[in-house]
């Protein structure tokens, strides 16, 4: 029996909740984790409020195998993630020598440019393991099962590439899909029967509209390629059985 | 004293957590709610798992003034939101006459086309108030402080336009912003001081990279236009004080 390894993403930042910034880290992390056999099981977007961050981190690190946070580790007053992580774990937030060294490497004239605000980025909860930031040097870190990463997608992605070898996953979820110019409501009943038959898969149904024509994409996810393929094949037959056209390149929604 | 009215968005669906579908409802809802003086205080993305949906709905409806859900109210087997809402409130899930009537209006030949699967969309928790769906007729609904809406953005938006007059907000958050070709770490210290001075505002700092030049957008949010304007003006002076160029149209990230 394979254990399902579950992760939670905490997106920290008022700018996401205000609608100003559109998160791009969720889809990236979801796909990367899936390849490693780790399921993104929940995501929370929370504001820059100390107690909310502390409580959410503590709840989620107990509940999930891995927690990833993005955002709030920059040099400005609104970057409070590290203070909150230290508080959540009940450890001091130290100026970390290794992190200072990393930061210095980012400046031609570190004695001038590495000012007090930038040094905030070298304050790391005691006991954490640093995560390299090849883009702008200010590191992320791992504290037990919590990975603290930057919010800027390019930096977040670089950090993730540096830690993914540490993650221990279960079986990756495989997926297959088929689309058809058929309304959801027409295929729903037979789809439910196919789902009952293929209990080792999850079949998702997603409507689309293309060039004025209504269609549905059916996505089958499961741990065994044979199950996925068989279910996709049955769904394809069902679409054809209704006399409807199968779509080769169904659009992602 | 104005009370802050807080809302939570629950995005329900495996397709968001797998990275396949990119949510577009959060930014829309955030901006719309803000105009009504309602703060989007948290968002959770949760999978199509019955107990998770029930528990999350119950936790969040107690914690926030309003809860909005998107997704999972279609005709297929993976649409389980209504079952979960009924269970969360401890009420039966009835076939709702008014909802059936709405659905019938969507079909030229309802006696044939309104099959059992489609009738699933007329199952509404007892006591709920329907929310019209001008696009595809299958309604959403309100159950106490929980609004249940479709996941398809076009439909979700139409539903929201139909219910927004019901929402009672506090003072809307006003915002102003200024960008400059200045690194965050350079302006961070003075920015912290400006934040300390303008305690009625929240100042957010967001780095950007444009044409190879590093810059920062500073966003000031507050309930009073005068506070917002004064803080933006002070930040603008600070950028100029560093001899840096102010950006007229700073990019959204």
TrEMBL record, chains A, B:
Query: By its UniProt entry, which InterPro entries does this protein fall under?
Result: CinA, FLAD1_M, MoaB/Mog-like_dom_sf, MoaB/Mog_dom
Q: Which residues form the MoaB/Mog domain?
A: 8-171
Family matches, as PANTHER family: NICOTINAMIDE-NUCLEOTIDE AMIDOHYDROLASE PNCC, NMN AMIDOHYDROLASE-LIKE PROTEIN YFAY
Designated name of the protein: Molybdopterin-binding protein
Biological source species: Thalassospira mesophila
């Amino acid at each position: 029996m394979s254990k399902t390894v579950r992760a939670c993403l905490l997106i920290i930042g008022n700018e996401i909740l205000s609608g100003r910034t559109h998160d791009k880290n969720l889809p990236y992390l979801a796909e990367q984790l899936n390849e490693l056999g780790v399921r993104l099981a929940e995501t929370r977007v929370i504001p820059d409020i100390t107690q909310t961050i502390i409580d959410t981190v503590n709840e989620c690190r107990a509940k999930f195998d891995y927690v990833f946070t993005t955002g709030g580790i920059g040099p400005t007053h609104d970057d409070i993630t590290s203070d909150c992580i230290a508080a959540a774990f009940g450890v001091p937030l130290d100026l970390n020598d290794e992190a200072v060294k990393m930061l210095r490497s980012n400046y031609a004239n570190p004695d001038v440019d590495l000012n007090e605000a930038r040094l905030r980025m070298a304050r790391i909860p005691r006991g954490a393991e640093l995560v390299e930031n090849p883009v702008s040097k200010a590191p992320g870190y791992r504290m037990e099962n919590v990975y603290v990463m930057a919010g800027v997608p390019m930096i977040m992605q670089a950090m993730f590439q540096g830690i993914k070898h540490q993650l221990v996953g279960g079986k990756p979820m495989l997926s297959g899909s088929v689309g058809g110019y058929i309304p959801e409501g027409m295929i729903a009943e037979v789809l439910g029967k196919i789902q009952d038959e293929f209990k080792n898969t999850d079949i998702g149904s997603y409507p689309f509209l293309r060039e004025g024509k209504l269609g549905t994409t059916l996505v089958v996810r499961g741990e065994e390629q044979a199950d996925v393929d068989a279910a996709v094949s049955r769904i394809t037959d069902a679409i054809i059985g209704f006399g409807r056209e199968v779509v080769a390149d169904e659009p992602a929604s």
